[in-house]
Design brief:
Maf protein; 5 helices; about 30% helix; globular
Amino acid sequence: MEKIIFATGNQHKMVEIRMILKGLGMEILSQKEAGITADIEENGQTFEENALIKAKGIAKIAANNPRYKDAIILADDSGLEIDYLNKEPGIYSARYMGEDTSYDIKNQAILDRLRGVPDKNRTARFVCAIAAEFPDGTSEVVRGTMEGMIGYAIAGENGFGYDPIFFLPEYGCTSAEISPEKKNELSHRGEGLRKMREIIEKRRIQR
């Protein structure tokens, strides 16, 4: 069976990825499940650059393993852009206030920085760039976004990261309060993965 290795060890993320890529007829593994422990330094200036750096780095390692030399390597870089904060935390979303700082603390810090800021200035979006490195050495990169605003309180148990403060006005709740199925339909990662799925399916037909 053809394989996809996704460059992450985040199990929350893998649940979303498997739901969205279900039905491709390919085995979908995290890099951890593939036995790849490398931590690729993401030193790009954009989400797209970081995703591509990660995909190419993991692909080089996978190419040395006969089981995975023909696998498609996917990697993402995602984060939160808050317009009022000059698009912070942006590509530093995971490292904001330190990688080991809990998201409860990070989320509260953002709410504190936006205290007194009106709705019209609380616009924000989640961004997700997804890169694919194919066995023939070619690459593809796509971007997905989810528009919303920063809420006024931490709310919801369904999401992770910044989901509990990311408010979706049309639904009247945060992205941590909607169902996982609905989140996959709306989310930046969902949009990016669906775009990448189309590319993978098209390439398989053209072979």
